[in-house]
Design a protein that fits this description.
The longest helix has about 80 residues. The chain folds into two domains: about 210 residues, no CATH class; about 130 residues, Heat Shock Protein 90. It has twelve helices and seven strands. A hairpin with a 4-residue loop joins strand 4 and strand 5. The chain has about 425 residues and is an alpha+beta fold. The chain starts with a helix and ends with a strand. It is rod-shaped. Strands 2-4-5-7-6 form a five-stranded mixed β-sheet, covered by helices on one side.
């Protein structure tokens, strides 16, 4: 199959999965993007709760020295507010989460210096900065790679424990409460980290499984399309060969024998090229005049002298090579049908082309006995496959008008508007 056909199959396969803004944005992260969004919103909710608690506790008599309290509060809650805003709107989450995680670690390291000479509360009462320890760990979950997340989840509680003990000169009364606080922060931090890792792993597996399913569907659809194409080609070959044999059997004059021989050569050529790409050959644009010349040439090979009427408006309107080939072959089939079934009475061809946008129309007319398209057997593919389907394959249209006064086959292709 061609690259365009394969892409069409993949588009059809992915079309069986519900499409939303997230799936259109990134084909391979259908579930992961939703899980990341859910984790982000959950972190924002928890950070609001803990951040509010810490902010309210910051209004109590500070343990920091003069000038330090306001600096630490602004340097901590400012980045936290930016992180929460980023989580809500879904933009800049990694950057602002990483910024808060780093600045909060800096605030912890400055805590002993900021509280030097200050008043220390009772051992069972934690300072306001303690309530942001796990906010810092989940910020790392949003911002950093998994290994850094592990380090950060263990680092922040341990750093808090050390700086808290340094603040109180390792007083024995503070040892047990600080160890309990550190243990609690470690347990909660690793639980949150594990949950995020599990959800992300599951979503990645779901996306991978979905991608494999889409690829399997695409492969099956491609195989089915290839098989259908082979069946259609086989039917077309059968139709062409049968038509050539019938023409040879009925040939009584030199003209009829020449036509039968040309039909046989065309059938053999198609049969030899069955396995080749139907769009092989250059796709360089060809103007309408060249198409008319080619029609006259192939008609002479059938033993018919035809002078194509040409109405070309504009500056040499051109069409892609594959379109020109399809129109020429479809016109050849229409001429063949006219010669075979209407003895070529009043046979004529007209080519009309205009520009801006480019439009090419070819008419094949005769004045012989017409036919009813609906009564043509389904196994006769000269009209349905060689004319209508061939033109439709390149984006063109076919109109056939037939009656007792003759038949007109109109082939038209127009350039898509930009």
């Amino acid at each position: 199959m061609t690259a365009d056909a394969t892409g069409s199959v993949l588009d059809d396969a992915w079309g069986h999965i519900p499409q939303t803004r997230e799936t259109n944005a990134d084909l391979g992260s259908f579930t992961r993007r939703r899980i990341e969004r859910a984790i982000t919103l959950a972190v924002a909710f928890g950070a609001v709760v803990l951040g509010t608690q810490a902010f309210l506790y910051s209004f109590r008599p500070p343990e920091e020295g003069p000038g330090w309290h306001l600096a630490l509060v602004l340097g901590t809650f400012g980045p936290l507010a930016l992180m929460l805003l980023a989580c809500v709107i879904g933009r800049g989450v990694r950057f602002f989460s990483g910024l808060f995680a780093l600045l909060y670690l800096g605030a912890l390291l400055l805590w002993p210096l900021a509280t030097e000479g200050g008043t220390v509360g009772p051992p069972t009462e934690q300072p306001w900065i303690w309530y942001l320890v796990n906010v810092g760990t989940v910020a790392a979950v949003l911002a950093f790679p998994f290994r850094v997340q592990l380090v950060w989840t263990a680092l922040l509680p341990l750093v808090f424990g050390v700086v808290r003990l340094v603040q109180v000169d390792f007083a024995r009364a503070f040892l047990q409460p600080v160890l309990l606080d550190v243990s609690f922060a470690l347990i909660l931090g690793f639980i949150l980290l594990t949950l995020a890792w599990v959800f992300r792993s599951v979503s990645a597996n779901v996306d991978e499984t979905r991608a494999r399913a889409v690829e399997s569907y695409a492969a099956a659809a491609a195989a089915a399309a290839t098989e259908q194409e082979r069946v259609a080609v086989a039917a077309l070959m059968h139709d062409s060969v049968l038509a050539a044999l019938i023409a040879a059997e009925r040939a009584h004059t030199d003209r009829e024998r020449t036509l039968a021989a040309a039909m046989a050569r065309e059938a053999l050529t198609r049969l030899a090229n069955t396995e080749q790409d139907p769009e092989e050959g250059p796709d360089e644009p060809r103007d309408a005049s060249a198409i008319a010349d080619e029609i006259e040439h192939v008609a002479r090979e059938l033993g018919v002298e035809i002078r194509a009427e040409r109405t070309i408006l504009g500056d040499s309107p051109s069409v892609p090579g594959r379109v020109a080939r399809a129109l020429t072959l479809a016109t050849l089939q229409a001429i063949t049908n006219s010669i075979e079934h209407a003895d070529g009475e009043g046979l004529g061809v007209a080519v009309r082309a205009v520009t801006d946008p480019v439009r090419v129309r070819i008419e094949v007319r005769d004045t012989g006995r017409g036919f009813d398209l609906e009564e043509v057997p389904d196994d006769r593919l000269g009209i349905r496959a060689s004319i209508i389907a061939r033109v439709a394959a390149v984006g063109g249209t076919t109109r056939i008008a037939s009656g007792e006064h003759g038949t007109t086959v109109r082939l038209e292709w127009r350039e898509a508007e930009a």
